[in-house]
Amino acid sequence: MAKKHQDDGKPNQIGQIVEKAVAQVLESQIPELESRIVQQVLDALPAQEGEAQSSSSSANANALVQAVANIQAGSSQKEILRALLDAGSGYCSRIALFVVKAGAASGWQSRGFGETDPVKDFALDLTTGPPAHSYQNRVAAPGNIAEMGSAFVERFGRPANEQMLVLPLLLKDKVAAIVYADGGETGQLDPDSLELLVMSTSAWLEVASLRKQASRDEVHAETAPPVQTVSSFSDPFAGHAPKHAAAHVPEQVVDIPAAHASTAAAPATAADPLAGLSPEDAETHRKAQRFARLLVDEIKLYNQAKVAEGRRNKDLYDRLKEDIEKSRGTFQKRYGNTAAASGDYFHHELLRSLAEDDISVMGANFHR
After folding, report:
1. Cα 286 vs. chain centroid, distance in angstroms?
2. I need a surface site. Which of 18, 70, 248, 296 has the fewest CB within 10 A?
3. Ramachandran region, residue 187 (left: φ > 0; alpha: ψ -120 to 50; beta: rest)
């Protein structure tokens, strides 16, 4: 019996020995395990942070793309400008647009300044501070709210962080409006995104005007008067005349010379290549010339970087082939079966305007 009880006690003794041994091993390994766990967590953190930053950057880029798309969805120039203010309000707390006419700037519309829109018809001083710098140099001008002048601060108050930004909205290289932005009470102000939105709006306004003019040339060709004055760039603020315009400064007229040339027929002379044509055919030729200029101007406007690189590397056609051939097809569809077909105006305009009269910059693949 004694032997049986002794045998029955052996498993317990073995278990105790194993537990003790395991405890000793674990105790000796715990510091190393702790160290390894901490290191693995630390190694994982940068990757997670990087993924978060990447995700945030992607979201910001997508938001900007959508903002630009909303601007380009405008069917009229005023809708485009309102879309700019709506989109811009996502990158600042307060944003306002001031129309520039006759050397004076007048409030047009705003976002974030209150329901009554106190910006309307406010006279923005273009002779000092960030507005003057932006207007004269055509660049974004950040600054402190105090630099906007006492009248501005009294009317609109101060943003929480005192910082603001002024940007020029250009139409055909002239400042047509000034955009003001600040962080309001939240301090939200993203200068880079705002500058991108304003630049995109400027470019899209010009494209919209070119397309509108091309359509107008076609639709109203038969009813147009025989003589027209030179028209200016289609002005989105035509009905907004500043009450405080500076009389001593001549009004800026934003012209698109190539697209808005006079349709008046020049007196027929020996030097006139259209002399001897019927009035109808001569007008068709002139319309074809203008349309060719519109198409090439649009190519240049959309592809400024490619144009510069193509001229430098003498491969302009290869870089812009898709746009050129698409516009060539548009021109041929409209004028390929008319009296103007023999003029080959689109080809000549490519060389004159795009290649600056140097056919070599078009490259070897350009059809001469």
Report:
1. 33
2. 248
3. left
- The burial of 281, by beta-carbon neighbours within 10 Å (0-12 exposed, 13-18 middle, 19 or more buried), is given as middle
Question: What does the pLDDT read at residue 134?
Answer: 93
CATH T-level topology, domain 77-206: Beta-Lactamase (3.30.450)
The pLDDT > 90 percentage for the chain reads 42
Interacting residues of 194 by C-beta distance below 8 A, sequence separation 6+: 88, 91, 92, 95, 140, 165, 167, 179, 181
Q: How far is CA 199 from CA 31, 71, 142, in A?
A: 59, 11, 16
Render the burial of 202-241: b for 16+ CB within 10 Å, e for the rest: bbbbbebbbeebbeebeeeeeeeeeeeeebebbbbbeebe
Two structure tokens written together for 273: 């290549």
Report yes or no: 106 and 125 within 8 Å, Cβ to Cβ. Answer: no
Higher pLDDT, 20 or 304: 304
Domains of the chain: which residue ranges? 77-206, 269-368
pTM for this one? Answer: 0.52
Angle between helix axes 279-302 and 191-219 (nearest 10 degrees) is 170
Calculate mean pLDDT across residues 168-194: 92
Quick one: DSSP state of residue 162? -
pLDDT tens for 102-128 read 889 999 999 999 878 899 989 999 999
Token representation of residue 351: 């060389």
pLDDT at 75 over 80: no
